[in-house]
Specification:
Elements: E1 3-7, H1 13-22, E2 26-30, H2 38-43, E3 46-47, H3 51-57, E4 60-63, H4 68-76, H5 81-84, E5 90-93, H6 99-111, E6 115-118, E7 121-122, H7 124-130, E8 133-138, H8 141-146, H9 148-154, E9 155-162, H10 166-194, H11 199-208, H12 214-225, H13 234-251, H14 256-270, H15 281-289
Parallel strand pairs: 1-2, 1-4, 2-3, 4-5, 5-6, 8-9
Antiparallel strand pairs: 7-8
Family: Belongs to the HIBADH-related family.
GO molecular function, one term: NAD binding
Keywords: NAD, Oxidoreductase
């Protein structure tokens, strides 16, 4: 099996790298924040000193990094991936970034004789741990197929979206829906709480009726229990909605619901809830209605 370089060991990246190790791959890991690699090293990973070292050691590189600025640093920095990227290498980037950056990265990789696949994921922290992520992928379809085993060591499904940038676009469209759904769920639950309803009973109604959604399944019990441990942070949801807003503005697509959801998550960030789970949006509504949901 080839050595895989893995960059970004946060909420999603660490369990993804662990699944590669469990499937028998040799994995070299790097994270910008020291200490994040310790548990993976215990599982058999080797820790690299820089993204450049990863690129020099591996022909397949997986990255999942928080935002465009961090991705720029990891790829284009003096000790970045592109400084050491080898001809024939394949980069699988699972970060949620702008489609414009994904296209630029694909062009930069091609100049090195390498392939870049924008491959964001959905499935949240639980899916990363269980290895049940869905990858939405942009880039050369033949390269996607040639690396199917690597994808399926970390997830359950690959959906090919089209040329470079298509995976990134799909993820921003997807997360626009996630943000709107989450805001709608919290708002409806706030009304129910203010109306004096039993919240466990109301959640059963939501999950069994036309309001059923993945967000209701993932976040309903967390909201009722005041559990804001992170599956997907409020700050990252806001970041994705901002990217979605830029994307839609560039397409001249009116997005009133996206903008409303973005404003709500911005309010949550301003209140200091950014590092909580996105379900912490409920704390805003609890302040507004004067009671717990």
């Amino acid at each position: 099996m080839p050595t895989i370089g893995f960059i970004g060991l946060g909420t999603m990246g660490a369990p993804m790298a662990a699944n590669l190790l469990r499937k028998g791959y040799e994995v070299a890991v790097y994270n910008r924040t020291p200490g994040k690699a310790d548990e993976l090293v215990k599982l058999g990973a080797t820790e690299a000193a820089s993204p450049l070292s990863i690129a020099e050691a591996a022909n397949i590189i997986v990255s999942i990094i928080s935002n465009d600025a961090a991705v720029e640093e990891v790829y284009y920095g003096e000790q970045g991936i592109l400084a050491g990227l080898k001809p024939g290498a394949v980069v699988i980037d699972s970060s949620t970034i702008s489609s414009a950056l994904a296209v630029r990265l694909a062009g930069s990789a091609a100049e090195k004789g390498a392939a870049f696949l924008d491959s964001p994921v959905t499935g949240s922290k639980d899916g990363a741990i269980a290895g049940t992520l869905l990858f939405m992928v942009g880039g050369d379809q033949a390269v996607v197929e040639a690396n199917r085993d690597v994808f399926l060591a970390m997830g359950r499904e690959i959906v090919y979206m089209g040329p470079s940038g298509s995976g990134a676009t799909a993820k921003l469209c997807h997360n626009t829906i996630v943000g709107i759904n989450a805001a709608g769920l919290v708002e409806g639950m706030a009304i129910a709480a203010k109306g004096g309803l039993n919240m466990e009973s109301f959640l059963r109604v939501v999950q069994g009726g036309g309001a059923a959604s993945k967000q209701a399944d993932l976040k309903g019990v967390k909201i009722i229990g005041g559990d804001y441990s992170v599956q997907f942070s409020l700050a990252l949801m806001l970041k994705d909605l901002k990217l979605g807003s830029v994307l839609s503005d560039g397409m001249n697509v009116p997005t009133p619901m996206l903008e409303a959801a973005k404003s709500l998550f911005q309010a949550g960030q301003t209140k200091g809830y950014g590092e909580d789970d996105l379900a912490a949006l409920a704390k805003l509504y609890e302040e507004w209605i004067g009671r717990k949901i």
